[in-house]
What we know:
The chain is of the alpha/beta class. It is 49% helix and 19% strand. Among the domains are: 98-183, no CATH class; 197-266, no CATH class. The protein has helices spanning 50-57, 80-100, 104-160, 163-181, 206-216, 222-235, 252-264, 282-299, 310-316, 334-339, 344-351, 358-363, 371-374, 397-406; strands spanning 10-21, 24-35, 39-43, 65-70, 73-77, 189-192, 270-274, 302-307, 319-324, 327-333, 383-388, 391-395. The strands form two sheets. Strands 6-7-8-3-9-10-12-11 form an eight-stranded mixed sheet, sandwiched between helices. A four-stranded antiparallel sheet has the order 2-1-4-5. A hairpin with a 2-residue loop joins strand 1 (10-21) and strand 2. Helix 6 (222-235) packs across helix 7 (252-264). It is flat, with a radius of gyration of 26 Å.
Amino acid sequence: MANNANNNEVLLKVENLCQYFKINKAVDDVSFDIKKGEVFGLVGESGCGKTTTGRSIIKLYDITSGNIYFKGKRICAGTLSYKRAIADAKKKLKQAIEDAKNDPAAAARLPEIKAETAKFITEQKAEMAKAIHDHKNCDKEYAAEATKEVDNKYLPLINSATGEEKARLVEEYKRERNVAKKQRFITQIQMIFQDPIASLDPRMTVRDIIAEGLVIRGETDKKKIDEQVFKVLELVGLVKEHASRYPHEFSGGQRQRIGVARAVIMKPELIIADEPVSALDVSIQAQVINLLNDLRHDLGLTILFIAHDLSVVKYFSDRIGVMYFGKLVELADSDELFKNPLHPYTKSLLSAIPLPDPAYEKQRTRIVYNPLAEHDYSKEGPTLREVKPGHFVYCNTEEFNKYVSELKD
């Protein structure tokens, strides 16, 4: 397992995230946080919502509901929860008006209920407007701050300089200010995609693919771009001669290294690795995982590692969240999750891990997860509860008591 995060600073906070596509609840009320410097594994079967979670965080989708905070600043916000709260308040007011027609006591309370409802709706609309503003303007505000920093850095130097020194500073100032104006807060989060073939443009050279983010950000110095591209190529285990080639000239593992280079060159603080090894041969998977592990320590990266292979996630992750049908059903430290798997779905995933031992494989029994048979939520619905410090399970009170009794020291 990877080393523990070096501090308790929360870099990313996902709060009640919902991502709905028409009738499909791809992600439903998911909450977790990722600490600076750690690797957070997100696992589950295909279609459980883990990739959608990653894409929602990086704003490839506008989220339906909930909030996402990065470095303490809200970068994503949905409005459905506010709309539902307003609709519920109006529905309750309508019922109160109906009750007041036949009940004098209810009629006496009606003015107070109307005032409270009006106040509540006003507050919800204000919160919704704030959420929309943060979602739309976080990048713009970040660019304004970056531009101001460049002004504060260069203007005093330019005013006190003369001759060639002043001309040089003015040129640097214009270039850096142009880059600062195009800065986006979200570029501090980069994504490595699952398919190393489909995620690379076949008509672009490796140099252009890796440098594209720098160009979009406003970098115009080709020499500086080339230097950064060559440096990052060597960082991921390739050579600068590869820069002039096209994606089809590389193996799957090499293509994934190019994808890693494209993310790393932007100097992000958080990388979302969306099943980066699932399309690769087993022998190559270890190389890519080791590369990510080295980059994590060398560059101080924080990683959201999305996968369906729990054995890979255990090796690489500090903490693991298990998703099933859009819900986060269990969350714990890596060692703790493997020692004390509590949710039936987690037990099912663990039972599917093969080992290179024929004798063990003959005896291994797959645990089949059947939610209808495992849970009775007719009287009380489940919520994510902390069964022990740092270990959360999606359960109701009856299940909670059962899980606590199953815990091992």
